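#structure-requests
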Amino acid sequence: MTILNRLYASSGSEVIIETLEIQVGSISYWLTKGWEDITVTLEDGTTKTFEACGIDIALPARNADGTQDLKFAISNISGVVSTAIRQALNDLSQTSLTYRCYVSTDLTAPTTTPYTMAVKSGYWTAVEVQITAGYMNVLDTAWPRFRYMLPDFPGLRYTN
């Protein structure tokens, strides 16, 4: 049994550390849930320090409905987050989010494969920011992507 499975099942002396990297264009925000900043090694071997903040993360459900959304809320007491999120929501095509999970006894690599998702929507108030990020929604896409329509392919029309 892995440490992460044991932690989910019955706890232990270790603690699960959840982190978020929010990338808005060329700017990255490194946030972690808790009261202390942590320095960890990313999956590519670089070292980053995640800033502690009041954050709550709801992981995507494991189901077959086609929408795998990660939702999170961040404390907006300082106002720094709302400025970044306002920029992110104005240009969703340039915004992504990476979720990483660490165990407190091993900060040399993420415990599981990181989730990288596009920011879909969100809003902010005076005290918090709510964001929804997710993978591409496969159920809402046309297949095949290139559609054979009559204006482009008149030979498709059936005539008697």
